[in-house]
């Protein structure tokens, strides 16, 4: 009699943790986006839509770099069933909700405190804020699906089910090329954390559907690799300092966006910088604590390595 009661108590504890993180996610999303939720079209930097999106060659990436493939096509199709302003609002809130709910789901067995903290950090951080200020909410879909992809790859279910879960989780991410790259790298890193005998096979097996979903923009770009390219683009979109910590410190704390208009005033203050550095130190200490568990050592090491690799790549590719 005791075992079923303990099982029910554990199930409720897990659900309570997930719901706590989910509730915090909804509250923060509402706080960040409430000013943009009134009916009507948002005309803000890169985040612009029209009443009747047209299904023309441009929606398929013709005439320029395929940076919105297949996003333009999907939004045009969605506008056939719902007002395009409503589709735009969904694209605004979906990344925030998916990110917070995703980390809450991933950490649901760790308790409500873990899911609440994770949800806050997932939704309320410089990377998310600066992308929103740039009007690049759809780009955040790739970021938002990272925890869902990790959960899908590490699911205890059969390979067939995991392939389906990975494909489903990758669908929102691959709406933009950046999101597609994020999804593919996430799957490969997560697969590398699996037991030795499954790593290579699962990385290939689970990565293939994500790669297939990326083909629209890959093939489009390969037809004319230099289309829409400008030599001055690398300089214009280089990482910029948005905090007193310089370029490296800005990137380490998830900032460094190129556009001055998207810089957060709070990040120019030393107290904010101190809090961000303290958070990075706490994260490193948490990594050291978590890796003491043999079952979590490899995932923890890979997570830190992936973070470090992203920082290095950003500085090398987009640095000044």
Descriptive keywords:
320 residues; mainly alpha
Count of runs of 4 or more consecutive helical residues: 14
Name the helicity range.
Answer: 55-70%
Main sheet overview: 2 strands, antiparallel
Read across the widest sheet, the strand sequence of neighbours is 1-2
How much strand?
Answer: under 5%
What would your notes on this structure say?
The protein is an all-alpha fold and 320 residues long. It has a domain at 233-320. It is 66% helix and 1% strand. It has 14 helices and two strands. Strand 1 and strand 2 (47-48) form a beta hairpin. Helix 8 (159-173) packs parallel to helix 10. The longest helix has 32 residues, at 2-33. The chain starts with a helix and ends with a helix. The mean pLDDT is 88.
Strand and helix map with partners:
Blueprint: H1 2-33, E1 43-44, E2 47-48, H2 71-78, H3 84-106, H4 112-123, H5 126-134, H6 140-144, H7 146-153, H8 159-173, H9 177-192, H10 199-223, H11 233-236, H12 246-252, H13 270-290, H14 294-318
Antiparallel strand pairs: 1-2
Summarize the structure.
By secondary structure, this protein is mainly α. The protein has helices at residues 2-33, 71-78, 84-106, 112-123, 126-134, 140-144, 146-153, 159-173, 177-192, 199-223, 233-236, 246-252, 270-290, 294-318; strands spanning 43-44, 47-48.
